[in-house]
Every structure is written in C-alpha cells, then in structure tokens.
C-alpha cells in the first residue's frame, strides 16, 4: 500500500517535472522559461548589512581597463593589476598596502535607478557580477550571433552561445524537434501539448483539440498521455495513476480519489478483483476522472469529438478494475492501446457478471477492435466533420483509400435520386448543407474537395473522370467541339446535362450534337493517339 | 509518404505527356520542339493569345492539348498547366465566378483549425515566404514600441496569428518592464475567421505562459470594405501606442478603395505601420487580358517552383497551397472585377513600388534598422539556398522596404511606415 502511495507521488513529481520542462526548453537566455517561473527564485544580492556599499557610475562601471600602461597602452581593470604589469617594464610600481583594519566587505549596486539592484539591500557582492548584470539588463547588446542573430551584451555570454548555437534542438512535448528557436516558439503557441497543459489547470476551459498525428490512443487513457511527458518509465499505471493524473485537472473528484479511497483502490489492485459494487465512492471517482480525461484529451475535430468522448468514456468506464490488473501484467504494452483494449474488454467479458449492467456496451464487448476504431475514425463514420482526418492522419486503417472514399461518395451521389451534382458542389451558390438528408451530397463534396482531383474535371464532368484520367479527353473534346461550333449553347448544355446526370458519355454525346459534329479532335481519335 | 495511390495517376500523366508532346510537334509543323521546361507556359500563353483574338479553332486545339498534358499531381509545369487551363476554360465559358464560388465552398467545407494550423506551420517551416514578412514587421514594431508600456497592434492579416508568438516572447524578455499588449485581429478571409476562436484561445494561453498581460479581439472583416472600420470598433484608446500590421491585406481591398484604407490607418495615429505584400502586379494590366495573364503566369510559375523545391512531392500542404492559388488565378484571369464588390477577395496585387506611391501620399517610410535586416538575413540562412534579401535597386529611397527574393526574383515586399 505504501508503495502505491509512493508510486503515486512519484508520478506526481514526474508530472511536475514534465511541466517544468515544458516551460523551460527555451534555451540559453531567459526565454519563455523565466517569466512564468518568476516566482521566488533565490534573490540575488542579499549582502552582509555591514558591507561597504559602492555605487559606481555607469561610465566607471563600463570602463573596461581604465588603468592604462603608458608604455604599451595595455589597459587593466584594476590598479593593482597595472602595478604588477609595470613591474614587467621595469617601471616603478607600488601595490596598495592593505589597510591595517580587517578588509571590509564591499558590495556594489547597479547604477540604474529603476533596477532592483540599485537598492543597497539588493547589492551584488562582486564587481564583475554587477558589471555583467548592468550590461545584460541595461546595456546595449552588441554581440550578435551570425548564425541565429541572437544578441548579447556580455562577450562571454556571446562566446558561450557560439559554442552551442545550432547544436541545440528544441523539443516540444508533442515530440516534434526544432533546430530553430523561433519556429519552436511559434509551434509551442499552437501545439496541443500547451493547450492540454493549460487545460489541466483550467478545466472549465474549452476542450483542446489534438493533432491527429500524436497517438490516437491518448483518447483512451490519460495516464499515458502524461507519461509521455515524463520520459522515465512510468510506475505501474494502476488505477491510482489515473487518480493522480486527475489532480492537475482539479476539483473535488480528485479529492475523493486521493484521500479516502486510495487504500481501497490499492486493495482492489492487489486482489485483482473488481470492487466496484462494494465501494461506490471509487466508482464515482473513476467516473469523474474518466470524464475529465475525456475533456482534457479530446481528440479529433469538433463534431466528431462528441462521439470520441462518448466512446472514450464508455471504454474507460467499463474496465477500471481490470485496467489495473491488466496493466500490471502488461506494462510495456501501454502504447499499444488497441491490444490493451482488446485485452481489457476481453477481461471485462470474463468479469461481466460483476459489472454493473449499465456499463456494458454489448456490441463493443463482442468486437473490441471496432470499438477502438470507432474512436480513431470517429469522423469518418459520422462524417460530419472533416475530411482533414482523411487527409492528415496517417489513416489508422488504410483499408479505405482516398480514392475508395471518393468512389463511395460518387456512388452515393449517383444513387441519390435527383440530387444535382452541381448543387452538391455548391455551384448554385448555396453552401453545402451539413444537415440531414444531405449525407450523400456532403460526402461527395468533401471527397472531391480533398481527395479527388478537384477542379475542372470534376466540376465539368462529374466524378467518373477521376478514375480514368484518359476520359478527360472526352471532356475537352466536348468542350472543343462546342466552342468550335461557335456557340456557347453547347457549353451551357454541358453544364446542364452534367447537372442533371452523372453519365459522362451521355453528356459528351449531347455535346457532339450541340457542337455540330466531330472535328479532327474527335474523342476516339485522340484517345487512340 | 502515404498517398501512394496517387502514383498511377502520375505515371499515366507522364506517359500521356510524352505522347502528346509527340503529337504537338507533329501538328506544330515548322516549330521546334518546345523546351521541356517551358512547354506549359508556352502553351498557356498561346492559348491566352488565342482567347484574346477569339480564334476559336486555336482555342480548342490548345485547350485540348493542355488538358492532355496537365495534371494537378504532376510536376510543377503540369500543375501550372492544370490550374491555368482551368482559369482559361472559365474565361472562355464565362463561368469564372461560378467556378470560383465552387472552389471556395469546397475549400470552406474542408477547412478546419487542424488543417489550417498544420498548413501554415508547415509552410513556415519549409519556406520563408511568410516568415520573412513576420520577422521584418516584428522587428519594426518592436523598435517602434521600445520603452512603451501599453501596446496595441491592429493586425489586418490572415496569418492565424503565427506572427505573434515570437513577438510575445521578445516582449517578455524585454529588458525593461514587460508591457501589456492588446491585439486586434481583423480577418479578411472568411475561411480564416472560422478558426479564429481556437487561435485566440491559444494566444491567450501562450501570452499567459510568457507572462505578458494580453488581450485579443477578432473582428471579422470579410464581406465588408476594410475602409468602413471605425476607431471605436478597433478599440483604439488615446493612451495606447498603436501599430498597424498589414500582411497581404491591402491587395484584398478593391483597387479604388485602397486610398481610403490607407487614410483609415493614418486616422488611428499609429506609431508604425508595417505592410507586407507579395510582389506581383495584376492591377496596372487589368485592362489587357494577355498582359495580365502573363504577369499572373510569371508570378505563379515562381510560386509553384518554390513550392516544388520546398515541399515533398506528395505533400498535402503543398496541394492545399496550390489549390489556394488556383482560386486566386481564377479570380485574376476569369472573373470580372465588377462581380466581387465588397466580397473582400480582390486579387489585384500591386508591386512594392506601386504600394509605395500610394503609401507615400500619407505616410513616410521607415527604413528597417540594421538589426532587423540582420535578423531577416539570419532567418533566410536557416532555409534552403535560393532565398535572399534584396533592396530595391530602382528606387532611390533606401527606406522603401526590403524584398525577399527567390532565385534572384523578388517575391515578397516588406516595409514600415509612420505618419
């Protein structure tokens, strides 16, 4: 039990360090890191109250080498050094005698009145320190890196930068690497990793969307998504993990999970036995954390997210007790969520008798894989949202290629009686309708927009052209003839006939008639060529 | 990448291209075999010429030929042929407006935050096309804002705020007190306005992370003339220091209204106005179809070549950018200007010099400081070779902006102005 608690705290720590690394991958400079972390650093400059406070003017402070050798013009920062140097020229030299008194400690204040270190109470203990401070904070940044154009006021900072410039990579929590600082910064602002992070502290906020590329499995379980932030091997992701993930998300849910029920959960954990029926609070906690996890890792596009979270929540709701058990067995498999879930659900089947009945989804327990897939491909099933899924996400199940989708869309379009293709494309100026009944049309429009060859061929000819580029010949043959006939009637006939039907050949033949017969550009001839 | 299913198309196209070139030289009689690289622009030019001469036989022939050779998935010449053919076809059939609306609604349908974000970030990663203007403008804005504590940027652009994270970071690390920033984004493309909610949330969070007091407001400026914006709407207050940042926004204003918009900027009493526009002139030649076509073809040839060298051949992002172009091309070539009053998608670009003439009536140019120029140069070094920064040779005034050049051709112009 104690180990479990330790684990949970370990998780917490790693989460925290994860957070820290989020804000601090900025680099050599203050960067994005310093501002947010501005809370109580060790305040520099808390000098001995007895020390002698020295206030130098900016010029004096900046005057490097104000003690100059009259022989060789070499400058020194301190008189002592010059004196030692003069000795080399065989000139008279004189080191200051130490005063008999015990040397009094000196501290230096910054000459800039608005600076915190201008106040003697925050004076810095050495001259070099105050000099660098003054340069960095109030001086001109005259050292500029040619490579990245970063500027420094202190030469040594600049030199240190030169050594590492370009060698450093910036890594976002989403896993993307950047060699350039500015693109890293821009990415940070737009990346979901940041959105998720902030969502945790502000649960009332919107549900951040995840890029499709990061593993889709993050939908299924929050613990994993966090553990990716903290590279060290995650401790046994028992249900306590789920609970500890919830904390950043806030709220009373978390409290329930954390304090009184933890032992129970751990118990169940060790027993590998579902304890749901005799510990309602746990159930509540689990439900709570599940819902939270859904909102914070909501994947996919707006409209599909509803379904995604439905599935996600139902999935998580079902297996909690098994989850512990299963994950204990299969820790390395965490990433393989599909497998994991299959097992989860299988194990759930085994334990079904102990499950509260309302938690089961019969079909899904029969076909676990399809359950998982339905989340991954939520929007292709419900098809209200976006073709962007098809377009961007490396399709989890590449069984349906873009072409196939398009084909299907075309079939749907064709079978929808009286559906005008042109209307489907919005040619009549109306917007494509999201609404009911328009499914076929929408599918068609989307398919063409992204996966098909949008543009002339589809617009003018209808989808069949997509499958045989050669057919385009016919199209332009038709066009050519129509135009050749010297009328635009043929063209409008083209539009009309295509609007009315998807039958290309009919359209073309109507062209032939409209255009007044084949010229030397007859379709067949060209086709043969 | 994936999308291997495309390869059959490409193969088909190449074979048909070979065949058809053969055909062309056969029928072309005495003409020499077209330079392999230039076939597209050559055919397209001839076709545009034939269109202006209303030589229907030639038009048919060339349209047919182009249709045989072109492909939206081929090399960049095939792509150019494809999209310009589409525009020529629309021109010939006077269906430009309809086709444009269709393409817009298709794009609109598939547009969402994720795709828009991915597209713009990827583009910025592989090409300085947009980041050039961002770095130059941010440099000028930061210098103009130096020492000020209450900042207000009026950002008229469709760049999804990708310009601002680095500026926020620069403000956060400013040596004096961190100022507060108010960002008023005027979105002029309807496509972009739909994703701005997501964007503002992210900007808010990022500013919080940076520790910069921040406020963001989005004004939908599509479907209305930009010149109608008022001071009140923009939330301009007396105690703020204003910067107006205009990225590719002026070209979307109807040619006749551009003066009004510039006067509006001036009425806001900005500390600095930054203007970035792509270097093309589709305005002075708008009465001359062939000339305008040539200008358009020249510009998009550069752009498509740039895309080809920047992206992988099967990149989705590249395809989306090309489709964006296809809409602009149709707008320029096949649509009547009269038809797009107030819709905010004018494509009558002007070149840096032309913008300078307009801007100089009201503003004085501010040269970019050496530091900013260095920043831009450092930026360009991080991309592939081929990019450079050039100053306008013809303009005696050194302050009239800087150009991003792709293979020695100026392609984007950035400038800064003050009242």
Protein architecture, described:
The complex is a heterodimer of chains A (529) and B (419). Chain A has 529 residues and is mainly alpha-helical. Chain A has 3 domains: 89 residues, no CATH class; 169 residues, no CATH class; 125 residues, no CATH class. Chain A has 29 helices and 8 strands. A two-stranded parallel sheet of chain A has the order 1-4. A two-stranded antiparallel sheet of chain A has the order 2-3. In chain A, strands 5-6 form a two-stranded antiparallel ribbon. In chain A, α10 packs antiparallel against α11, α21 packs antiparallel against α23 and α26 runs antiparallel to α27. Chain B is an alpha/beta fold. Chain B has 2 domains: 159 residues, no CATH class; 224 residues, Vaccinia Virus protein VP39 (Rossmann fold), CATH 3.40.50. Chain B is 51% helix and 14% strand. In chain B, strands 1, 2, 3, 4, 5, 6, 7, 8 and 9 form a 9-stranded mixed β-sheet that branches. The N terminus of chain B is likely disordered. At the A-B interface, α2, α5, α7, α8 and α20 of A face α1, α3, α4, α5 and α6 of B.
Strand order of the largest sheet of chain A: 1-4
Oligomer type: heterodimer
How many strand segments of chain B? 9
Q: What is the structural class of chain B?
A: alpha/beta
- Give the averaged pLDDT of chain A, no decimals: 50
CATH architecture identity of the largest domain in chain B: 3-Layer(aba) Sandwich
Beta-strand level of the residues of chain A, as a percent range? under 5%
Determine the strand fraction of chain B and express it as a percent band: 5-15%
- Which descriptor suits the 3D outline of chain A? flat
Low-confidence stretches of chain B: 1-34
| Count of DSSP-assigned helices of chain A | 29
CATH homology superfamily of the largest domain in chain B? Vaccinia Virus protein VP39
Characterize the overall form of chain B.
Answer: globular
Tally of domains of chain B: 2
Name the average pLDDT of chain B: 84
């Amino acid at each position: 039990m104690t180990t479990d608690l330790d684990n949970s705290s370990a998780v917490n720590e790693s989460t925290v360090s994860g957070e820290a690394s989020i804000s601090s991958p900025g680099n050599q400079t203050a960067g994005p890191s310093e501002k947010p972390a501005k809370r109580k650093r060790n305040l520099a400059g808390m000098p001995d109250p007895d020390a002698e406070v020295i206030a130098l003017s900016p010029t004096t402070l900046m005057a490097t080498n104000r003690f100059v050798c009259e022989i060789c013009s070499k400058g020194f920062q301190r008189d002592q050094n010059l004196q030692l140097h003069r000795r080399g020229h065989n000139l008279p030299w004189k080191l200051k005698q130490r005063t008999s008194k015990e040397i009094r400690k000196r501290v230096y204040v910054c000459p800039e009145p608005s600076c915190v270190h201008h106040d003697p109470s925050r004076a810095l203990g050495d001259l070099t320190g105050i000099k660098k401070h003054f340069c960095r904070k109030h001086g001109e940044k005259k050292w500029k890196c040619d490579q990245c154009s970063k500027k420094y006021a202190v030469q040594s900072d600049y030199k240190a930068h030169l050594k590492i410039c370009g060698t450093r990579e910036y890594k976002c929590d989403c896993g993307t690497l950047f060699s350039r600082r500015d693109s890293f910064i821009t990415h940070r602002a737009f990346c979901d990793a940041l959105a998720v992070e902030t969502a945790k502290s502000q649960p009332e906020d919107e549900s951040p969307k995840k890029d499709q590329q990061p593993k889709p499995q993050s939908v299924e379980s929050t613990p994993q998504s966090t553990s990716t932030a903290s590279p060290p091997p995650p401790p046994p992701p028992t249900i306590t993990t789920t609970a500890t993930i919830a904390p950043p998300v806030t709220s009373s849910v978390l409290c329930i999970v954390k304090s009184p029920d933890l032992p129970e959960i751990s118990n169940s954990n060790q027993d590998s036995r579902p304890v749901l029926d005799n510990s309602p609070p746990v159930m509540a906690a689990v439900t709570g954390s599940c819902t939270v996890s859904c909102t914070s890792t909501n994947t996919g596009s707006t409209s599909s997210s509803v379904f995604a979270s439905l599935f996600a929540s139902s999935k998580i709701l079902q297996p909690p007790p098994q989850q512990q058990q299963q994950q204990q067995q299969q820790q390395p498999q965490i990433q393989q969520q599909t497998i994991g879930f299959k097992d989860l659900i299988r194990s759930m089947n085994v334990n079904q008798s102990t499950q509260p009945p309302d938690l089961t989804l019969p079909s899904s327990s029969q076909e676990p894989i399809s359950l998982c897939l339905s989340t991954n491909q939520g929007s292709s099933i419900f098809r209200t949202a976006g073709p962007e899924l098809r377009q961007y996400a490396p399709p989890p199940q590449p069984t349906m290629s873009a072409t196939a989708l398009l084909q299907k869309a075309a079939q749907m379009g064709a079978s929808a009686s009286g559906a005008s293709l042109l209307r489907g494309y919005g040619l009549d100026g109306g917007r494509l309708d999201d609404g009911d009944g328009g499914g076929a049309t929408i599918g068609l429009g989307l398919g063409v927009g992204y996966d098909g060859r949008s543009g002339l061929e589809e617009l003018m000819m209808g989808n069949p052209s997509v499958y045989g580029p050669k057919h385009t010949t016919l199209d332009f043959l038709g066009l050519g003839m129509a135009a050749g006939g010297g009328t635009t009637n043929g063209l409008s006939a083209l539009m009309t006939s295509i609007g009315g039907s998807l039958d290309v050949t009919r359209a073309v033949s109507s062209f032939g008639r409209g255009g007044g017969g084949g010229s030397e550009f007859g379709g067949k001839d060209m086709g043969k060529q | 990448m994936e999308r291997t299913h495309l390869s059959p198309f490409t193969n088909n196209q190449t074979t048909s291209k070979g065949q058809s070139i053969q055909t062309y030289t056969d029928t072309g009689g005495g003409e020499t075999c077209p330079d392999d690289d230039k076939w597209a622009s050559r055919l397209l030019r001839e076709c545009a010429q034939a269109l202006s001469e209303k030589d229907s036989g030639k038009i048919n022939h060339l349209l047919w030929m182009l249709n045989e050779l072109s492909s939206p998935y081929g090399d960049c010449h095939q792509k150019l042929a494809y999209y310009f053919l589409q525009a020529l076809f629309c021109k010939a059939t006077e269906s430009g407006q309809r086709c444009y609306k269709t393409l817009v609604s298709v794009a609109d349908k598939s547009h969402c935050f994720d795709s828009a974000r991915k597209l713009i970030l990827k583009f910025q990663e592989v090409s300085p096309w947009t980041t050039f203007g961002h770095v130059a403008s941010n440099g000028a804005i930061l210098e103009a804002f130096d020492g000020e504590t209450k900042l207000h940027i009026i950002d008229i652009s469709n760049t999804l705020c990708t310009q601002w994270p680095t500026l926020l970071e620069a403000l956060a690390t400013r040596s004096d007190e961190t100022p507060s920033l108010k960002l008023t984004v005027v979105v002029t493309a309807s496509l972009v306005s739909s994703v701005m909610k997501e964007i503002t949330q992210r900007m808010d969070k990022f500013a919080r992370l940076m520790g910069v007091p921040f406020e963001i407001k989005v004004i939908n400026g599509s479907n209305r003339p930009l010149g109608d914006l008022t001071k009140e709407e923009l939330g301009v207050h007396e105690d703020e220091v204003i910067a107006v940042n205009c990225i590719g926004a002026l070209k979307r204003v109807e040619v006749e209204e551009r003066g009004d918009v510039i006067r509006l900027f001036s009425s806001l009493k900005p500390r600095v106005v930054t203007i970035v526009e792509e270097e093309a002139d589709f305005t002075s030649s708008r009465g001359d179809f062939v000339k305008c076509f040539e200008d358009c073809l020249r510009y998009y040839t550069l752009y498509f070549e740039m895309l080809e060298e920047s992206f992988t051949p099967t990149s989705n992002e590249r395809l989306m950018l090309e489709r964006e172009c296809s809409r602009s091309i149709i707008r320029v070539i096949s649509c009547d200007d009269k038809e797009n009053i107030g819709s905010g998608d004018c494509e009558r670009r002007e070149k840096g010099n032309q913008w300078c003439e307009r801007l100089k009536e009201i503003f004085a140019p501010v040269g970019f400081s050496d530091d900013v120029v260095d920043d831009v140069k450092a930026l360009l070094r991080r991309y592939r070779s081929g990019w450079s920064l050039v100053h306008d040779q013809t303009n005696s005034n050194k302050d009239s902006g800087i150009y991003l050049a792709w293979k020695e051709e100026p392609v984007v112009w950035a400038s800064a102005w003050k009242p």
